[in-house]
Amino acid sequence: MAWIKVANASDVAVGAMIQLALEDDDLALYHLEDGFYVTSDVCTHAAQPLSSGTLDGHIVACPRHGGKFDVRTGQPTAFPCVIPLTTYDVEVRGDEVWVDYE
Predict the structure, then answer these.
(1) Is the whole model's pTM more than 0.90, yes or no?
(2) Which residues have CB under 8 Å from 10's CB, separation 6+?
(3) Least CB-packed of 32, 41, 56, 73 within 10 Å?
């Protein structure tokens, strides 16, 4: 595992999400009231980018079929999604957001 700087904390407003392109993977960075979270950006049901969906609190909704996930744990919270997202450890160092990425 290797820590990679992915953003400046000040660049992502609370309640917002952005897509991160790291090597061959697309990840999503979410800024919630209680901190930053990172998951795979690909819906496990419809292979759609979750960062193109909607974020309501800690729940992200897929733009294609409306399946939902808890971004803190990756667990699906609404059908048709049943397979969890991959999640990544995140650290904020000053104003920098770092992800533990393989």
Answers:
(1) yes
(2) 95
(3) 56
Per-residue pLDDT for the chain (102 aa), expressed as one digit of tens each? 699 999 999 999 999 999 999 988 999 999 999 999 999 999 999 899 999 999 999 999 999 999 999 999 999 999 999 999 999 999 999 999 999 997
- How many distinct structural domains can be found in the chain? 1
Residue 11 φ then ψ, to 5°: -85, -15
Question: 55: which strand partners?
Answer: 60
CATH code for position 91: 2.102.10.10
Q: Which two tokens stand for residue 40?
A: 């795979």
